[in-house]
Design goal:
With about 325 residues, this protein is of the alpha/beta class. The protein has eleven helices and nine strands. A nine-stranded mixed beta sheet has the order 1-2-3-4-5-6-7-8-9. Helix 11 links the parallel strand 7 and strand 8. The model is unreliable at about 1-10 (pLDDT under 50). Bound molecules: pyridoxal-5'-phosphate and iron/sulfur cluster (SF4). Iron/sulfur cluster binds near residues 126, 161, 163 and 193.
Amino acid sequence: MIFPLQKSNGDWQTELANLITDPKKLLQELNLTSFFNASEVAQIEAFPLRVTQDFLARMQKGNPRDPLLLQVLPQLIEQKKVAGFDEDPLQEKQFNPVPGLLHKYHGRVLITLTGSCAIHCRYCFRRHFPYQENNPGKSGWKKLWEYISNDPSIHEVILSGGDPLLLNDKVLQQFTTQLSMIKHITRLRIHTRLPIVLPSRIDNALFSWIEATNIPIVMVVHVNHPNEISHDLQNRLLTLKKRCHYLLNQSVLLKDINDNVETLVTLSEKLFVCGISPYYLHVLDKVAGAAHFAVDEDEIVKLYHALAMRLPGFLVPKLVREEAGKGAKTLVKLF
Ligand SMILES: *Cc1c(COP(=O)(O)O)cnc(C)c1O
Ligand code: SF4
């Protein structure tokens, strides 16, 4: 399921060629070789370490509990089998009428144009998803158009993970040019971690593409912890915000990373400064390998109440979970 990343000569593409994939190197850079030994840090073949230099630069040296490090460091604990945590927790395969397209939400289709990401998040609910079988490739685009054109109830196309912004702007342009010819499509949504983990992706070429696209764009970035937003990134995000119809954030609630009120308050405040609206706070999907990130149900509800007491309503993300087979996310019951 891991695709080789495409090479090109853009700035961000050069950075992509220098991803960190060796856990030993990561630990050396962070002065952490004495905290973890080779047997603790597993190189997990099917979903290996992958992180950008830029994201690494935002980790604290010498801190084995760094909240950014814990999001990407493969650990032996992932290999422990835990009841209830499965390879396909959302049973998405049943909603997959055409390669690369999932139709499970009313009015919206999810398209995965690439299976690659610039970072491998250990909690990823698609870490076992068979992207390879499910990548439409350009030759498969025609089938996508047919499916979308033939169903006028579809108003929104969601480009999702892998990370759609790994495609270069020319390919994105070709895609949206065709999409804009389908009259019933009124929005394009992009779920991406790239602006956060590879800020150089937010460049003029991206803006040119957005400006040339005559479909309103909703961009959803994924930030879990306030340390992910550096000062430089803040400025870039503000310029991105000017070009998007909405700029939203989705976080996953992760044990020992962001499962405390102060962290979540700071995150919302920081997102506000960047022009980003907190959208979802997602309960962890029960994917095999991620059980150590799960937060207790009672704890989740308590935490959320405390969060809501601290922030204006528009900075409180909706607390949701994804349930297999449901046509929408489920709001977590708070009482
Ligand atoms: C939930 C989700 C969607 C669609 O859900 P909305 O409720 O329409 O926001 C799309 N992409 C991803 C990755 C999601 O997690
Ligand atoms: S960027 Fe998104 S799709 Fe990619 S590994 Fe992380 S959570 Fe999964």
